[in-house]
Amino acid sequence: MKHFLSFLFLFFICITNAQQSTATKQVSTFSIDAPQLKISKKIWVYLPKNYTASTKKYPVIYMHDAQNLFDAKTAYAGEWNIDETLDSISAQVIVIGIEHGGDKRMEELTPFKNVKYGGGKADEYLDFIVKTLKPKVDATYRTKTNAKNTAIFGSSLGGLVSFYAAVKYPEVFGKVGCFSPSFWFGRNEMNELLAQTKEFDTKVYFLYGDSEGDDDVIRDMKNIEHWVNTKRCECKKLNKEVIVKGGQHNEKMWRESFKKAYLWLF
């Protein structure tokens, strides 16, 4: 029995390793040093279908957890199908996916330390995106470089750090996709930061599922949205809140919600 279980384990490992990539031909990758994090980062790039035949410039979306965006082979629990979704609507946008740092993911995507979980290195992570990665992307691809045409997008801790990026770098990121944001992580510190922030004109798409299992998360998101509304007239329609009925904290909900978020933001 022991040998049989070992065989099954090796069999499933082989099946996993043999899985074919599901990324489309619109997707490529490159590596770049991230001196702020003292590591090298793998970056995934989605280019629109007509990119090579065109001379136009494109808006850019920066997305976290690139392993889960384009390829089922690298995804932890199912991919977002970003490339297939954008191809299906002939989207005119470039997507830059930043791979998370594995066991360093929580550190990279959290702006404040949590008593129980640690973290708190989002400033270094965002410094890498703004000062190292974005200049590289803008120099390599035909991009629209202003804030109006630059979005940052993520889920869970990625949703948290995306919103934080908009607060910290309003001159860089003019649009935010904020899916299932983990605002509970450093809640008090975030509230203190927002209390000191005088203006906020970034366009934000908030999304959460009503079956994610924690009412505090919805409450936190609504509190953040209320703060956003105090900074501008709701008539500007610069933020949208979506609660997905039956939606859970997983790639399935985020994958199925991405198209509508993209179309609203752009």
Brief characterization of the structure:
Helices cover 38% and strands 18% of the residues.
Alpha carbon gap, first and last residue: 57 Å
Instruction: Report the biggest beta sheet as strand number plus sense, adding barrel if it closes.
Output: 8 strands, mixed
Unreliable segments (pLDDT under 50, ≥5 consecutive)? 1-17
Strand content: 15-25%
* Structural class designation: alpha/beta
The count of β-strands is 8
Calculate Rg over CA atoms. Answer: 19 Å
- What is the chain-wise order of helices and strands? HEEEHEHHEHEHEHEH
What would the average pLDDT be, to the nearest integer? 91
Question: What share of the residues lie within helices?
Answer: 25-40%
- The number of distinct helices, counting runs of at least 4 residues, comes to 8
Spatial strand order of the main sheet: 1-2-4-3-5-6-7-8
What does this structure look like?
- The protein has 266 residues and is an alpha/beta fold.
- 38% of the residues lie in helices and 18% in strands.
- The chain has eight helices and eight strands, in the order H-E-E-E-H-E-H-H-E-H-E-H-E-H-E-H.
- It has helices spanning 2-18, 82-88, 105-108, 122-140, 157-168, 187-196, 215-230, 251-265, and strands at residues 27-34, 39-46, 60-63, 94-98, 150-155, 175-179, 203-209, 239-244.
- An eight-stranded mixed beta sheet has the order 1-2-4-3-5-6-7-8, sandwiched between helices.
- A hairpin with a 4-residue loop joins strand 1 (27-34) and strand 2.
- The longest helix has 19 residues, at 122-140.
- It starts with a helix and ends with a helix.
- Mean pLDDT is 91; it is low at 1-17.
